[in-house]
Amino acid sequence: MTFEIRGKQLARAAVGAVFVFALLGCSEPEQAATPHDLIIRGGTIVDGSGTARFVGDVVVDDDKITAVTKGHSAETAAREIDASGMVVAPGFINMLSWATQSLIADGRGVSDVLQGVTLEVMGEGTSMGPLNDAMKKTKLDQQGDIRFDIEWTTLGDYFDYMEKRGISPNIASFVGAETVRVHELGEDDVDPTPEQLTAMRGLVRAAMKEGALGVGSSLIYAPGTFADTDELTALVSEAAKCDGMYISHMRSEGGKLLEAIDELITISRDSGAPAEIYHFKQGGQSNWDKLDAAIARVEAARAEGLRITADMYNYTAGATGLDAAMPTWVQAGGYEKWRERLQDPEIRARVAEAMKSPGDDWENLYADAGGAEHTLLMGFKNPELKKYTGMTLAAVAAERGTSAEETAMDLVVEDGSRVGVAYFLMNEENIKREVALPWMSFGSDAGAPAAEGVFLKSSTHPRAYGNFARLLGRYVREEGVTTLESAIHRMTAFPAGNLGLKDRGMVAEGYYGDIVIFDADTITDHATYEQPHQYATGVRDVFVNGVQVVADGAHTGATPGRALRGAGWTGWPDGGACK
Description:
The chain is of the alpha/beta class. The protein has helices at residues 99-105, 110-113, 133-141, 155-165, 177-185, 194-209, 229-240, 257-271, 291-304, 335-341, 345-355, 365-369, 393-400, 404-415, 428-435, 463-478, 484-489, 493-499; strands at 36-45, 54-61, 64-70, 77-82, 87-90, 92-94, 117-122, 170-173, 175-176, 214-218, 245-249, 275-277, 308-312, 317-321, 375-379, 420-424, 440-442, 515-518, 539-544, 547-551, 554-555. Strands 1, 2, 3, 4, 5, 18, 19, 20 and 21 form a nine-stranded mixed β-sheet that branches. The chain is globular and about 80 Å long. It starts with 35 loop residues before the first strand and ends in a 24-residue tail after the last strand.
């Protein structure tokens, strides 16, 4: 049974009436109308369609919206909420979420839910399945602050595991192209044999039948970068047979940005799948002037009839690891081989030299950012290195008395990880233009932590706490670069439609009760690079599948979230879309 087709039916309180039988006979009893579960009264409804706002009421029964009226509804409900002066909108969709592990540590997803996020979409390059025994061991060995047993194997198993644990937001996922590759090929720089590629295609098809939304890739990091265009096209073709899409952290967001867009469009055209660009940007000052050409390439493909879209986070810094500062050849084979090579003096000298300039055949975010002064250290697993959290790589290098490049290599060796960092890469004026693009949706590219417990052991990018509030507060209200209706459309119905999700992303009759009530005049992000663990404010109430998870700005503790499956899922009444 799928939650998407029929939610668990809750008993609704019956309202009876006492009838007096006349002496001369009895008439047929009349029954009073049964009240609804919930009515949200008098809010300014921005329904997700992109059309003009209106004042009205929203009626919710069980997990569905059963009526939306302009003006006052004469219906009654067991519970009514006054939303006068507030915006009532569909729950927001985080198109690029890394809440895969944070929701295991804390299923409430507090930082996102307090911004109105009701769906976390995962799968940038890697996904939580399919896994084999070797992959499970690697994942266990690489765990940092958040530690857990891996009790699942397939992506479908992960969905079931998360629903059983209890989560506040809904979740959905792409199957990772890198995950599929590692499952069959390991982490070396090798090409698949025809037999191995057939097996990889089979893994994609199986994941689509389990409910994956399509194939996600991340092509600047090893080992995902070792996949060529033909390999990716073959995998995405399997997703296309199941009405899935392709979504990609492209091979370049800097020096070869335009060529990378061309590759994504080619994969879309040749596979038959629509495609989306993850965190659309122009990384590095020398690439900021490529925005016009990048937009033109996307819009030309759309004019051709291809459905090419993009998503973004609303900050000038990206967050990733020190792996993005070093050539991919040194990382081939996985972390342990990378770590071993970084202790070889000759290899260290080659890597240090390569780090100092943009890579010809790899994406050097360290050089694109302008070097160590613009590289902020955020995440360590080694307790002895956590003292460097919040410092620039330049400051740590000065303290240690080694070059920035040597310091970066030493930190990777000592930490047992790629080390989490932020690179300051983007241009604010470009961000303002991108926010207004009609084919742009939004994603935090971060987990969904809480400002407490295990999450305080490391820093994070402020986008984990503020991406959606920042859009509505800074770019809609303060900067006026897009309208409230357009921004909400591109956080709700637009991405829901791109993903092929059923009955999600609108405040409309028949849609699921994913609803946010917020104050458009006050919604604000507060997280900074120096103090990122600060919640956004201005969201008053949030409902997921008709259940309230935020009340008066505080999390209720409710965990009604579900795994939302794609069109290929075999649990649909027609057995799924896979051809």
